[in-house]
């Protein structure tokens, strides 16, 4: 069973669905803890309700990003975390974490990347007037929403869609796609590890 840490800065609705999927189905991963860089994130309350341990500290308490990530890395190592899942974590991952977890950090983004990377992807899509947007799950690299794509699903934008209506449609897809994709990814990872140990 893969040991997963979820990073979230905000509401944590994706975090919740990832945890619930692991608690109710044989899904091949367990969420060991939630990390938040925002000490008042609603995601922390969800963690408490879900009985998932949480850790929160702000980069502002550290001299620089490397020191902040080094502290985070110590926690990840102490908890023997295999895989990092970003779910609304509003920071770029720096070299300290990237180098330690190459190919083992994933993110979810509310657009069909490479369209509309960065902040406010839903608003960017509405401003542009595109008729289709969606959800992307991708590996994390040093760029802003630039890593290799793992899964995507499209969402139609109706002329009458408000921001909130579109956000609701996108989140409904995220909540289904993220646990499903993680299960597949982590199961494949486990199978590869088993094959390597047999051969
Ligand atoms: C999601 O829309 C995700 O795609 C983006 O941030 C949002 C997080 O929502 N990266 P929540 O905190 O999981 O509710």
Describe this structure in words.
With 199 residues, this protein is an alpha/beta fold. The protein is 42% helix and 21% strand. Strands 3-2-1-4-5-6-7 form a 7-stranded mixed beta sheet. Strand 2, helix 2 (42-49) and strand 3 form a beta-alpha-beta unit. The protein starts with a strand and ends with a helix. The structure holds 5-O-phosphono-beta-D-ribofuranosylamine (GRF). Residues 8, 10-15, 87-88, 108-110, 174 line the site of 5-O-phosphono-beta-D-ribofuranosylamine (GRF).
Keywords:
199 residues; alpha/beta; 7-stranded mixed beta sheet; 7 strands; 42% helix; binds 5-O-phosphono-beta-D-ribofuranosylamine
* Contiguous uncertain segments of 5+ residues: none
Number of strands: 7
Strand content: 15-25%
Strand line-up across the major sheet: 3-2-1-4-5-6-7
Helices and strands, in order, run as EHEHEHEHEHEEH
Mean pLDDT across the residues is 95
Number of helices: 6
Query: Helix amount, in percent?
Result: 40-55%
Radius of gyration, in angstroms, nearest whole number: 17 Å
Distance between the termini: 20 Å
Q: What bound compounds does this protein have?
A: 5-O-phosphono-beta-D-ribofuranosylamine
Structural class: alpha/beta
Gross morphology is globular
Strand count, sense and closure of the main sheet? Answer: 7 strands, mixed
Outline the fold blueprint.
Blueprint: E1 2-7, H1 13-24, E2 29-36, H2 42-49, E3 54-56, H3 65-78, E4 83-86, H4 95-100, E5 105-109, H5 121-128, E6 132-139, E7 149-156, H6 163-198
Parallel strand pairs: 1-2, 1-4, 2-3, 4-5
Antiparallel strand pairs: 5-6, 6-7
Helix pairs in contact: 1-6
The chain binds 5-O-phosphono-beta-D-ribofuranosylamine (GRF).
5-O-phosphono-beta-D-ribofuranosylamine binds next to helix 1 and strand 5.
């Amino acid at each position: 069973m893969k040991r997963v840490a979820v990073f979230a800065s905000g509401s944590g609705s994706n975090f919740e669905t990832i945890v619930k999927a692991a608690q109710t189905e044989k899904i091949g991963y367990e969420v060991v803890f939630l990390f938040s860089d925002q000490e008042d994130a609603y995601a922390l309350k969800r963690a408490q309700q879900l009985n998932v341990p949480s850790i929160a500290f702000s980069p502002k308490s550290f001299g620089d990003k490397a020191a902040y990530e080094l502290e985070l890395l110590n926690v990840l190592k102490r908890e023997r975390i295999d895989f990092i899942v970003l779910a609304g974590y509003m920071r770029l991952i720096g070299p300290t974490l990237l180098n330690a977890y190459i190919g083992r950090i994933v993110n979810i983004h509310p657009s069909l990347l490479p369209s509309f990377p960065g902040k406010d992807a839903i608003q960017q899509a509405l401003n542009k007037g595109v008729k289709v947007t969606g959800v992307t799950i991708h590996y994390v690299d040093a760029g802003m929403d630039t890593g290799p794509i793992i899964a995507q699903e499209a969402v139609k934008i109706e002329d009458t869609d408000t921001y909130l209506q579109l956000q609701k449609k996108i989140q409904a897809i995220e909540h289904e796609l993220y646990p499903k994709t993680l299960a597949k990814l982590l199961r494949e990872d486990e199978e590869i590890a088993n094959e390597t140990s047999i051969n």
